Amino acid sequence: MRLLLLACLRAQTGNATTAARIRDHLHAAGHICVLKDAFMYESPTEIANLTSTDKFDAALAIHLYKGGRLLQGSKIPFGIIFGGTDVNEDIKCKEKRQVMGAVLEKARFAVAFTVEMKELAAAEWPDARKKIHVQSQGIKTTPSETFDWYRFLQNAGIPTDTGSVHLFLLVCGLRRVKDPLYLVEAFSDWHRKDPSVHLGIIGPAVDPLFASEVKERVKRFPGVHVLQELPQQELHAALRRSLAVLNSSVSEGMSAAILEAMDLEIPVLARNIPGNAALIKHKETGLLFSTPQEFIALSKSLMNDPIMEKEIVTRAKDYVKKHHSWEGERKTYQNLVQRLQ
């Protein structure tokens, strides 16, 4: 089959990574799968023209609103993959909710990353319950072996000649829902007392206006740095050398960065919100915080307790192996796509 896959393809965002993985799964089953950036299209008419000109047999879209809205009235069969903010946030807006309901009604199937996400959607659109499948994200990390950690620190303006550097990495696209400034003040206070700790914020400027605001604000906080985004393999190598990976989002579907850190056996500290709590059991597979002060206290306990750290990363790695198998994800998408024939 010749398949169109619509997603928000800004480089290095979670959606783009998921889209690339799904494309690989479908290629492996002998399909042709073409990725298109949903942001490049205004209306369903443009996509209808594209599907007829390029002779697509079927389509997939990631995100029920951003991708799905372009498939309204589609002449070809399609499936939907929930993004996270669609069922967590967009559902609160009446116009978006109507569009999403209409799209879901016509979809042959839908995929939710978590049971919680499926339940949110099914509560809003009960008739769709049977067509929503739960498939968690499959994770595969490929750290670059030639990554230059010291150059990375130097480029970030982090001194490497003062002994050990403890880098906490916050991996996120720079947009409001990720709340990258949530921890900066508390972290900077900590850095003043312990200059070895640094917070690096790394990810694409998804919202350019907000991204420049973040860069401006961070200048006032010693020990906090906005870093140049990295290609996937180098980012994985940087994660591997960091002390911990952070997530401070206000709302989250299923954070690939958290799962990748778990796979690389790096401790995760995440804000206690439903999407993160679905992945992390507090003090078992990671640490959950509800305030910046709690984050600092947990970070200190992590640094001072190597045994706890080892136990957490070992359990987290096992969790990813068991629940986020890349092979399992491949099988699911290869089976589901047969419903589009």
From TrEMBL:
Residues 168-317 form the Glycosyl transferase family domain. It comes from the Eukaryota. GO terms for molecular function: glycosyltransferase activity. This is Glycosyltransferase 1 domain-containing protein 1. It comes from Lonchura striata (white-rumped munia). Keywords: Glycosyltransferase, Signal, Transferase. InterPro entries: Glyco_trans_1, Glycosyltransferase_G1. Residues 1-16 form the signal peptide.
